Amino acid sequence: MTLYRKVAAILWKDLLSEFRTKEMIFSMLVFSLMVTVIFNFSFPPGSEFIDDALPGILWMTFVFASLLGMNRTFVYEVDKGCLQGLMLAPMSRSAIYISKLLVNFVFIMLVELTMLPFFSIFFHLDLLGIIWPLLLVVACSTLGFAIIGTLFAAITVNTRTREVMLPILHFPVAIPIIIGAVQATAALLQGQGWDAVWGWLRMIIAFDIIFLVVSLLTFEYIIEE
Amino acid sequence: MQLQSRFERPVRAVGYLLLAAMVVNLYLIFFFAPEERSMGQIQKIFYFHVPCAWVSFLAFFVVFVYSIAYLWKKERRYDLIAHSAGEIGVVFATLVLITGPIWARPVWNTWWEWSPRLTLFLVLWFIFVAYLMLRGFVEDKEKAARFSAVFGIVGFLDVPIVYLSIRLWRDIHPSPVVREGGLAPDMWVAFGFSLFTFTLLFIYLLYLRVQLQKSEVALSDLKRQLVY
Fold first, then answer.
1. Quick check: B68 contacting A, CB < 8 Å?
2. Interface of B with A in 159-198 (CB under 8 A)
3. CA-CA distance, B20 to B26, in Å (whole number)?
């Protein structure tokens, strides 16, 4: 089997088991909605300030929701002993990493795509005009979150305090992505030109490439037994 | 026991050398180096603050190098060095974050400013505190070593990207930039010597900490032998 087929097999397995239960997607969605509503209460009604804070609210919601999802990446595999099975299968560790990365990416993107219309409604935003560049920013940033999130999830699943440990590892490392995503979104919402957006997007893509390579190189050391 | 005493004498000699260097360093800083014209005495903290920052960068670099070495060769020794350097790095980074605001309060008239360097240091501190926490939360020693090696590598490589992103971010929201003027020649002498002293202190602490870790490992191995 080619690498592509192996990755597709694991990806399909994970998507299938998720769509049978829909546990993760729904918890992430409901969580995101609640965070959005709660952020709304942190500003006085009708405040002008909220416009400046919007990109931050949007991304904080996405970051929290994605951590919630990524926490589960390896929980089933480890608790039910499936990881041993995966490791015995004739394929490289990179295939496991890439498929888990794609699973996380797909789930987070699904949640984000569902959330964007709600943001548009709650905060009176016209997102349709900027939808393509916005989706590009969202996709690149989400990929960055998922790249380090998947790597760290493989680590934290072995720690005593799984759910707490992932954000502690993830947040400081993800700071460039958070800054980049918030600023690029702000530039888009304020109607700044493509140059302003590209300045940030460039950095996010560089982050993605660097840490994808580092993750592929180091992942095998995490799950070896 | 034999092994311990063989190392003891040179280590003690380095310790005395360090003590002497520190006394000289204090003399150079407080009596030799001239007082800065506009900042006054508070500027003396510079001779402690910057070497601390240098030592913590050095320590995190040691973490990075020995993390790679550990993943490559799987030798316990490399992991102990990386761990010890991580601990020392966090201590010195904490000192940087404490001495910085003490200086900034009278000079910038604020305890904290979100300038690129300050923000970078805070993030760096978070990354390596997480690095130490990770070690504490993994039961299996061998696993803890592998995991923290991976995190140490990722964390260190993240530093330049964090710096780049923060600088871009501050460029968009400019804030008053405080530039340090040139140093007087006598200040350079004190500063250079202080850097030397702190680097020596780092090497000395690192050595002691690694020896202590080795003793801990030997002790736990002995305990296990006695139990089974």
1. no
2. 161-162, 164-166, 168-169, 172
3. 10
**If you ran DSSP here, which 8-state letter would residue A128 be given?**
G
Q: What are the b/e assignments for B46-62, b being 16+ CB within 10 Å?
A: bbbbbbbbbbbbbbbeb
Range of the domain at A29: 3-223
- CB-based contacts of A62: which residues, under 8 Å, 6+ apart? A32, A108, A111, A112, A115, A138, A141, A142, A145, A181
The per-residue pLDDT for range A162-176, each reduced to its tens digit, is: 788 999 999 999 999
Identify all chain B residues contacting A152, using CB atoms and an 8 Å cutoff: 151
Contacts by residues A195-202 (CB-CB < 8 Å, ≥ 24 positions apart): A197/A133, A197/A137, A199/B168, A200/A137, A200/B168, A201/A136, A201/A137, A201/A140
Contact in structure between A188 and B139 (CB atoms under 8 Å):
no
> Is the pLDDT at B174 greater than 60, yes or no?
no
Can you tell me the distance from the alpha carbon of A32 to that of A111, in angstroms, rounded to the nearest whole number? 8
Mutation site for A-interface testing, chosen from B78, B128, B151 by largest number of A Cβ within 10 Å: B151
Four-CA torsion A145, A49, B162, B106, nearest 10 degrees = -150
Cβ contact B155–A175 (<8 Å): no
pLDDT of residue B179: 46
- Three-state SS annotation for A157-171: CCCCCHHHHHHHHHH
Q: Angle B92-B95-B98 (CA atoms, 0-180°, nearest 5)?
A: 155
3-state SS, residue B84: helix
Our measurement of the distance from residue B203's CA atom to the centroid of its chain's CA atoms, rounded to an integer in Å, reads 11
Determine the 3-state secondary structure of A2 from DSSP.
Answer: coil
When divided into structural domains, chain A yields a total of: 1
The answer to whether residue B218 neighbours chain A at the CB level (below 8 Å) is no
Distance to chain A for B165, nearest Cα, Å:
5
Q: What is the pLDDT of residues A114-127, one digit of tens each?
A: 999 998 888 888 88
Tell me which of B49 and B177 has the higher pLDDT: B49
Beta carbons of B169 and A159 less than 8 Å apart = no
ipTM above 0.90, yes or no: no
Q: Nearest-5° angle of CA B43, CA B46, CA B52?
A: 160
Give the separation between CA A154 and CA A90, rounded to whole angstroms. 20
